[in-house]
Write a structure and sequence with these properties.
The protein has 323 residues and is mainly alpha-helical. The chain has 2 domains: 212 residues, 3-Layer(aba) Sandwich (Rossmann fold), CATH 3.40.50; 73 residues, Tyrosyl-Transfer RNA Synthetase (Orthogonal Bundle), CATH 1.10.240.10. It is built from 13 helices and 5 strands. The strands form 2 sheets. The chain has a 3-stranded parallel β-sheet. The protein has a two-stranded parallel ribbon with strand order 4-5. α1 links the parallel β1 and β2. α2 packs across α13 and α8 packs across α11. The radius of gyration is 22 Å and the shape is elongated. 33% of the residues are buried. Bound molecules: adenosine-5'-diphosphate and tryptophan.
Length: 323
């Protein structure tokens, strides 16, 4: 199975990103049958909203973080989108097979302008670039969040239109949306998201900083010494992600016992998060000190991606009469 995914370099990764997306991608590496492609979508970041002064730094940081969290460049072709220029050529060619109405119906475009991002052509044509990302590599499966479902539908529409006109050229991809991965709550109980400023980041410099953040998680005001409700408790929901089934049962008892206050569980959560990412933190330290090695990994990935992309583009150009 050929699996491709794109990651926007839009700032610090948080625990919601890890359990909602990163962990799944890393897990796919276990199956030798999979051909895996992951790239950092820095061209997409130009479509609005991102701070371009930080884009270069963020792109490298996301690469460092993914490698630290277990992305294995021997198993996954890993590169920066802008290192394979073929994607822009395909983007233009696919534009011819993209009806205006299709783009005008895009939810994410409407959502983003409602949030105040200026309605540029880049923002409007974002789904065509995404289709190019996917079709260029004959991707079969694309793991994404729910919000990206429509973009995959658009990609299929564009691919089918092209294939109908020119014969089988593009693989028709499907999305893989993890329903069972619950939405990870932020410190205020709403969905953890950069845009809500309620995240707990994966990497802090010190455990003290992490503790400070965990102390901000909203809990009820049950007085110390009284039993606590675990149901609907934000700290408990987060603790669950880092605990075995047996530990979860123990936790429920501890909540009900009346022997512990919220502070105890926040401390426990801090310790669990800190320990869980211990190995990743060490790797991150290494990659940050050896940033040239990260750049080399990305260059090597780009080379492999380009080999596939340039072959595909020869076929596409031939079909549309470009030489
Ligand atoms: P953010 O909302 O912080 O901007 P993104 O939209 O960049 O996050 O999401 C990147 C990936 O992480 C997506 O696949 C998304 O589904 C996943 N993700 C983000 N937040 C959460 C969350 N709170 N719970 C589960 N998955 C999440
Ligand atoms: N649009 C995706 C997001 O915002 C990122 C992305 C760009 C992507 N190109 C892609 C994801 C291709 C999967 C495949 O999360």
């Amino acid at each position: 199975m050929r699996v491709l995914t794109g990651i926007q370099p839009s700032g610090k990764l948080h625990i919601g990103n890890y359990f909602g997306a990163i962990k799944q991608i890393i897990a796919l590496q276990e199956d030798e049958e999979n051909e895996l492609f992951a790239f950092i979508a820095n061209y997409h970041a130009l479509s609005g909203g991102a701070n371009l002064d930080e884009l270069k730094q963020n792109t490298l940081e996301v690469a460092v973080d993914y490698l630290s969290l277990g992305l294995n460049p021997k198993k996954t072709i890993f590169w920066v989108q802008s290192d394979v220029k073929e994607v822009l050529e395909l983007y233009w060619i696919l534009s011819r097979y993209t009806p205006m109405g299709l783009l005008e119906r895009a939810h994410s475009y409407k959502d983003k302008i409602a949030k105040g991002i200026s309605p540029s052509h880049a923002l409007f044509s974002y789904p065509v670039l995404m289709a190019a990302d996917i079709l260029l590599y004959d991707s079969e499966v694309v793991p994404v969040g729910k919000d990206q479902k429509q973009h995959l539908e658009m990609t299929r529409d564009i691919a089918i239109k092209f294939n109908n006109e020119h014969g089988e050229t593009f693989v028709i991809p499907i999305e893989k949306i993890e329903d069972e991965v619950a939405v990870v709550p932020g410190i205020d109980g709403a969905k953890m998201s950069k845009s809500y400023k309620n995240t707990i980041e994966i990497f802090y410099d010190t455990q003290k900083q992490l503790q400070k953040r965990c102390n901000k998680i909203v809990t009820d005001s049950t007085p110390l010494g009284e039993p606590l409700e675990w149901e609907g408790n934000n700290v408990f929901e987060l603790l669950k992600l880092f605990s075995t089934k047996d530990e979860v049962e123990e936790l429920k008892k501890d909540y009900k016992s009346g022997n512990f206050g919220h502070g105890h569980f926040k401390k426990l959560l801090t310790q669990k998060i800190w320990d869980y990412f211990e190995e990743a933190r060490e790797k991150r330290e290494y990659y940050l000190n050896n940033i040239n090695e990260v750049k080399e990994i990305l260059n090597e990935g780009a080379k492999r991606a380009r080999a596939i992309a340039s072959k595909k583009m020869e076929e596409v150009r031939e079909k549309v009469g470009i030489f």
